[in-house]
Amino acid sequence: MRVGKPYRLSVPIWHYVVAAVATCIASTGSLQAAVRIHPLFTNHAVLQRELNVPVWGTADTGEEVTVEYGKHRVRTVAKDGRWIGLMT
C-alpha cells in the first residue's frame, strides 16, 4: 500500500483555534436575555395565510421582543416571563 504525503492545511491549525476562541469571547461580551420562541414554531412549520397568527414564547420580564417572518414584523414586551405577539 502506497502512502502519500500527509495532508497539510494551507492555514496553520492554530489560526483556526485563535479564530474560534476570539468568536467565543466576542459572543460572550454581548450576552442578552434568553428570548425563546415556543417549540411549536420550528423549521418547516406551516402558518395559515391571510389570518392573524399568534406567536409566543418566554423571556425575562421587561425584555423587548421582535419577531420577523418575511415582511411581517411584530414587537412586544415580555410580562411575567412570557410574551405574545400577533403576526398580521
Set out the fold topology.
Layout: H1 13-28, E1 36-37, E2 53-58, E3 64-69, E4 72-77, E5 82-87
Antiparallel strand pairs: 1-2, 2-5, 3-4
Protein model, in words:
The structure is a single chain. This protein has about 90 residues and is α+β, with helices and mostly antiparallel strands. It has a domain at about 30-85. It is built from 1 helix and 5 strands, in the order αβββββ. A 3-stranded antiparallel β-sheet has the order 1-2-5, with no helix packed on it. The termini are far apart. Mean pLDDT is about 75; it is low at about 15-20 and about 25-30.
* Count of separate DSSP helical elements: 1
| Overall 3D form | globular
Strand order of the largest sheet: 1-2-5
* Head-to-tail CA distance between termini: 66 Å
Q: Please outline the major beta sheet.
A: 3 strands, antiparallel
* Percentage of residues in helical conformation: 10-25%
What is the N-to-C succession of helices and strands?
HEEEEE
Low-pLDDT stretches are: 13-18, 24-30
Number of strands: 5
Rg over CA atoms: 22 Å
Helix-strand makeup class: alpha+beta
- How big a fraction of the residues is strand? 25-35%
Mean pLDDT reading: 75
